[in-house]
Amino acid sequence: MPTDLEFIKQLEKEIGTELKEEEITYENFNKGAYQRDSNGRVIRLSLEFLQLKEFPRTILKFRNLDHLSLYRNQLSTLPPEISQLKKLNTLYLSGNQLSMLPPEISKLTNLTILVLAFNKLSTLPPEITKLTNLNELDLYDNQITTLPLEITKLINLTSLNLGGNGLRKLPHEIIQLTNLTALRLHNNQLGTLPLEITQLTNLMTLTLGNTQLSTLPLEITKLTNLTALMLHDNQLSMLPPGITKLKNLKVLTLGENQLSTLPPEIAKLKNLTELDLGDNQLSTLPPEITKLTNLKVLTLGHNQLSTLPPEIAKLKNLTELNLGDNPLKQPPVEIATSDDNIERIRNYFKELKTQGEDYVYEAKLILVGEPGAGKTSLAKKLLNPKYKLSSTELMTKGIDVKKWSFPYSKEIPFQCNIWDFGGQDIMHATHRYFLTKRSLYIVVADNRKEDTDFYYWLNMLELLSGKSPILIVLNEKFKYKKYVPENILKSFKSVLKVCHVNLANNSGLADLSKSIQHNMCNLPHVGKDLIPKKWVRIREYLESEKEKSNYITRKDYLDICKNNGIEDHQKAGYISEFLHDLGVVLHFQKDLILRNTVILNTRWATEAVYQILFDNTIISNGGEFDNGDLPRVWHQRHYREKHSELLQLMLNFELCYEIGKTHNYIIPELLPEKPSPDKDFDKYAKGKDILHFEYRYEFMPKGIISRLIVRMKKYIYQKQQWKSGVVLEIGNSRAEIVENFDKRILKIRIAGNDRLYALDVIREDIKDLHESFESLVPHEMVPCNCPECQKRQIPHFFDFDELKQYKQEGEKYIKCRIGKIKNVNVLSLISDVFIKEDVRMKDESGDKKRFDFKQEIKFEGAKIDFKPETKIEGARAESDARADARSDVDVSVDIDIKVDLPAIQNDFAELKETIADVNPKLKEELNRIEDSLDDVTPESNKEKLAKPMNKMRRFLEKIADENSDFHKAVKGAKKGFEMAQKIGKTYNKFAQWLALPQVPDLFLGK
Ligand SMILES: Nc1nc2c(ncn2[C@@H]2O[C@H](COP(=O)(O)OP(=O)(O)OP(=O)(O)O)[C@@H](O)[C@H]2O)c(=O)[nH]1
Ligand SMILES: [Mg+2]
Ligand SMILES: [Zn+2]
């Protein structure tokens, strides 16, 4: 009789994949692994993501198998012989193509967990009733439109997931499942809550998200054990009356409904830790909300809130407060939506109370448009209509800021800051820092040009200006008139009107001036945003200081604050952050060099930047320069002392990057147009498989590739970069990214062994880049893998979103236009490229679709240890916790954030000191990583945590790179590698949980 190990060999042959021996838990994805007990018998087997079309029959040989996962394959049937695996306790079959189960499955009477999510089942075999030991049954995302009555006989079920099935009702018999503690019904067509459910009084978790509910029956109050109730994405127009009786609720989601008020009774839900009210029509919050003292996460984004009750500052345990997309005036939006908004909101209300209130009567008027359109002339004419146009008007380099004062009311003057932007292409690079929200915009166009420029500007403002109002000014420089196409006003809602002027004879100027003044005074924040009095004074002081100096030191700034009664440095920091957001000063507090300078004069700073961009020596040098160039470029006296700060500003604006640590810099915007012939990705890729991937933009802002080059600097392969493209080396792969601005495409080609990993790294950086724009959502395109396309240089591309939709609708195949093949397998397309998307898919089977809630239940003795925070005793808590752990990747990775985060923070601090001792030059960069690590706490959400961890990844990759200074420093330090290894291991735990790339084992084993 062959041993189990011999069967493993046989299985490897059958599936064509090597299997690893390791511990298997259901939390982790595992391409191929087995686990043996102390007698050498295989007891766990995990064959995931293998595209298996048939059930590998060798599996049947492992008679001691207790756990089998075939997650994400392409099985369409199971063999009846599966009944031979008598000892099976857990069986994971989600993400396959099963349309029926063999009746023989009923012989697996030891099964306690059966996961069948993401299949095509429309019914279950009647024999299923024999699985009397079943505790958990997951049928998420199948085609079960009527619930088979058999399920209601499985009376030991504690967790049942019927979400995503198009169910219209539940059978009365569901009441027999009295042991249920978790019932998931989200993403169905229920319409009303089946009353039967209210008899399932042991329920702790009930998910009803997206089930078309418009009310809840009062009987819901019977479910007194509920701790989590998901009601998001329904049609509720008021808080269902009974809900406030559910005193044990910890998590309540009401997002994406039609709530217009929240009754004060919400305060009765004292145990709430997470409350989602996002995407409703709330215009106020009851002050009573502060009685919810256990609240940790409060989601209020996408409502109509203009004020928050000051009491909100009293929610001591709050760690996450989401307020995005509300017309807030008190506190001002800049404060409400900042990174550390909770602290800043608390501070704001405190200062408002202690200092008294004041209002803002100031705003920016921003002039944009093509070079020579007449922006500067218009600015001058607004200030002085008698100004004579000059034919020698210089093109504006950077930004020119002028002050214009006119009355707001009889007593109150209004201060308008005119920001006149240079129109040259190269100036686009800094636009996103200065095209601020809550300003009035003027797009100036003269009548020589085609309309396309126009669209460019309007699109750009749509991305960056946060719905600020826009006036279009047509400057009739030449004889013939130009008309703005009708549809512009229709398709760009922010455009207030089109004004015609002729600056040569002032025709239309007075009307335009009046219209600007009117619209400035009516900007939503003007006269309405409440600001603490001292802030206003500090601001006024800085304004007057502007006349004297271009910048002040941080110390000067702190002194100014102190003189105005703000001694606390952190509070002073909040104020400069606010003024930075408003565009009054430039203060990059997070940058180690720039934090020490508060820049008062924007023009001073931007002009310096453009002196470099227009420097002929640097231009003819293909954008490369070094420190030696700086005295020439910044020769003026007012720049002399500030070269390092200005350079830092360039780096901060992502206008240039440093090549390694050479003090040589590259400005991607100035790179040569074409790659030289030896810069040849194709040579490398010849004979290798190429992974294609594309981003297609409805609208593409200028400068995407330049900024990407800056961001990906450390991967650039042998300086292979040009104005519209770059070659990268990532792991064991090479990638070429090329921008085609006219076609609005970013094309990516990757060859080599680590293609998927490389794509991951690139997508991550591109995603970050896109997020710096408000609503830039290009289409991600996936190449077809049909035989015809595989032969082709340029395959057919599918829209990834469309593929996902196909999948969701249960469509198996999609048609390839090139190959004329009707049945390209949708799943295979998705899984080839997007392993990470799976994490999301798995999420969906739980309740975390839109609400990232971390169930905080720990049961002593339960093996799963996930972010424990609250303890609940009792068997029910255990089974529920287990159920949650399984349907939620969030909490199920082997990570204890309360232990692992401080560990990695401490270990890093230690390693930092050690490395810095060996090579002090590295200290600055290490500090930066440390700062960002210290920015997060165990309570931070995943998105926040991902940031420092991404930095950590890059750091670890550097250590792995034998040529890097980091590697050398670690090597030179006592116990350096040991420390780094430890950090690497902890990082990998985070990586798995946060769906980041793992760092290679490479140096972990050294
Ligand atoms: N005849 C005539 N000339 C104009 C008019 N408006 C502007 N000009 C001239 O056009 C030239 C360019 O005008 P500017 O105001 O400098 O244009 P701009 O938009 O600020 O240009 P950049 O700063 O390079 O982006 C100047 O020589 C102006 O005198 C107009 O209405 N009629
Ligand atoms: Mg100008
Ligand atoms: Zn094809």
Structural summary, described in words:
- The chain has 29 helices and 39 strands.
- The chain has 1006 residues and is α/β, with parallel strands linked by helices.
- The chain has a 15-stranded mixed beta sheet with strand order 1-2-3-4-5-6-7-8-9-10-11-12-13-14-15, with helices on both faces. A 7-stranded antiparallel beta sheet has the order 30-31-32-33-29-34-35. It has a 6-stranded mixed beta sheet with strand order 18-19-17-20-21-22, sandwiched between helices.
- β32 and β33 (745-752) form a beta hairpin.
- The chain is globular and about 100 Å long.
- It binds guanosine-5'-triphosphate, magnesium ion and zinc ion.
- Guanosine-5'-triphosphate is lined by residues 369, 371-377, 389-391, 393, 395-396, 422-423, 475, 477, 502-504.
